[in-house]
Every structure is written in structure tokens, then in C-alpha cells.
Amino acid sequence: MDQFLQITLELLEGFGTTCLIFIITLALSLPIGLLVAFGSMSGFKPLRAVVRTFVWIIRGTPLLLQILFIFYGPALLFNVPVMPRLIAVLVAFVINYACYFSEIYRGGIESVPRGQYEAGQVLGMTRGQIFFRVILLQVVKRIVPPMSNEIITLVKDTSLARVIVVTEILKVAENWLLKGLVWPIFYTAVFYLLFVGLLTLLFRWLEKKLDFIKV
Predict the structure, then answer these.
(1) Any idea what the Cα angle at residue 55 is, between residues 146 and 69, rounded to 5°?
(2) How far apart are alpha carbons 126 and 172 in whole angstroms?
């Protein structure tokens, strides 16, 4: 019983790190992703080309590779001090998910019929008014399903932080596995399932709230 309590407390501590990675990544990558989306749709061709090439590179390489590069790369290439492990993980996650979110944003914005913009212009609305009053809610409704999938994937991707020895929940379970205990690995599944379950309920509720919007 004492061992079970000890393992539970350690897993909870690791789960705190998991939640920290999740929350900070989401808080930063969502707005940055929108900026990246605007860059990829820019009428300035050099900017559009640079942004789309960067997004292509990030989406085309594993997140695990990006974590390793951001943690070890600067020190090996430029002989600078290695950044804190958790910071390296957060930088990698924010860049990766901002690029994925940017494509979801772009797809949602470009899927709105051109006539919606033209109708707003006929009514004398500015581009900003058209976007925030006419387009935005339609875009939100369109992107909720793919965005929810990416956010749920983020929950599970946090386990990749263990590659540079950030002690998230799966790293804690792995440490016990190396001591000869298998069940903590399965115990972590309870935490993930509860977290993902709550997110699933949240997104279902959000989709129902947006049902009134016609797209």
C-alpha cells in the first residue's frame, strides 16, 4: 500500500509537468499559429514562400527530431550553453503545433465562400469588420473538429519530453519499469484516458454550442 501511494504521488507530480507542457504549448501555439496562417496567405510572395517552406519542414519532420535539435543543436553548432530541458521541450512543441494549427486556420479561412467577403464589402464593412463579424464564427465552426484532434494528440505527444529526460508522467512510470515494476506503465493510461475523456466532452459541448452557425 505504501508503494502504491508513493507511485501515485510521483505519477501525479509527473502529470503536473505533462499538464504544464500541454497548457503552455496550447496557450502560445494557438495565437502564433494564426499569425503563421496569415503569413502563409500573405499577398507578399517572398513572405508567403518563406512561411510555407518553414511549415513544410516542421510538418515533414518528427517532433522527436525537433526536440533533440532544439536541445542539442545550438550548443553543438554555436558553442552556446544548453538551454534548460523543459524550455527546449516547450520551444519545440510550440513551433511544431503552431505550424499544424496554422494549416487548420488557413484551411478554415479559405473554405469560407468568397461571396461572404464581397457581401460585406457591398454593405460598406471594412476588412476587419468582415473578418470578425462575418467570417470568424464560420471559421471557428469549421476548424473545431480538426483542432480537437490535434489538441488530443498534443496530450499524448507530451510523453516525447522524456527523450531529453524531462520528468513527465510516462518518464516516472519508465523509471519504475527499470526497477522491475510493470503496472505503473498501465497506471499512467488512467491519467491519459481521463484527460482525453474530459477534452472530448469539452469539444462535443463546444460543437453543440456552434450548431446554430450555418456554413
Answers:
(1) 110
(2) 54
**CB neighbours of residue 140 within 10 Å:** 15
DSSP, res 180: T
d(CA 52, CA 48): 6
Contact 168, 14 (CB under 8 A): yes
Alpha carbon 158 to chain centroid, angstroms? 10
- Alpha-carbon distance values, 203 to 91, 92, 161, 210 (Å): 26, 25, 26, 10
> What is the pTM (predicted TM-score) of this model?
0.93
**List of long-range contacts for 42-46, beta carbons under 8 Å, 24+ apart:** none
The model's pLDDT over 107-146, given as tens digits with 9 standing for 90+, comes to 998 888 878 777 778 888 887 788 777 788 888 889 999 9
